[in-house]
Design goal:
This protein has 105 residues and is of the alpha+beta class. The chain has a single domain, classed as SH3 type barrels. It has three helices and five strands, in the order E-E-E-E-E-H-H-H. The chain has a five-stranded antiparallel beta sheet with strand order 3-2-1-4-5, covered by helices on one side.
Length: 105
């Protein structure tokens, strides 16, 4: 399984590298795929490379999901729900292309 880790840009080091922080660690991240980013920008990283620029809300949701996965792997199923607070009261939603078919009927 491949998982991207959200990290926040602390500072750019030239055009292709940034010092980033996330998940209680700091790393130099290759920014070649996403370009130069401002301090404070959030990127999803995989194997030391920024793959996507995301907003803070999405970065928090990804971080929470990774923390929930870690808790479950440690056998702690009791403290997972708060990490998915955005989903607890939400009804399932169809993708737009399927919802359009339901709306026609």
């Amino acid at each position: 399984m491949c998982m991207g880790i959200p990290m926040q840009v602390i500072s750019m080091k030239g055009d292709y590298t940034a010092l980033c922080q996330g998940m209680q660690q700091q790393r130099n991240i290759d920014m070649g795929l996403v370009g130069v980013q401002a301090k404070g920008a959030w990127v999803v990283t995989f194997l030391g490379v920024a793959r996507e620029v995301v907003d803070e809300q999405e970065a928090v949701q990804i971080t929470n999901a990774l923390q929930a996965l870690n808790l479950v792997m440690q056998g702690d199923n009791e403290n997972v729900d708060p990490l998915f607070a955005d989903l607890i009261e939400r009804e399932p939603q169809l993708p737009l292309h399927l919802q359009a078919k339901v709306d026609k009927e």
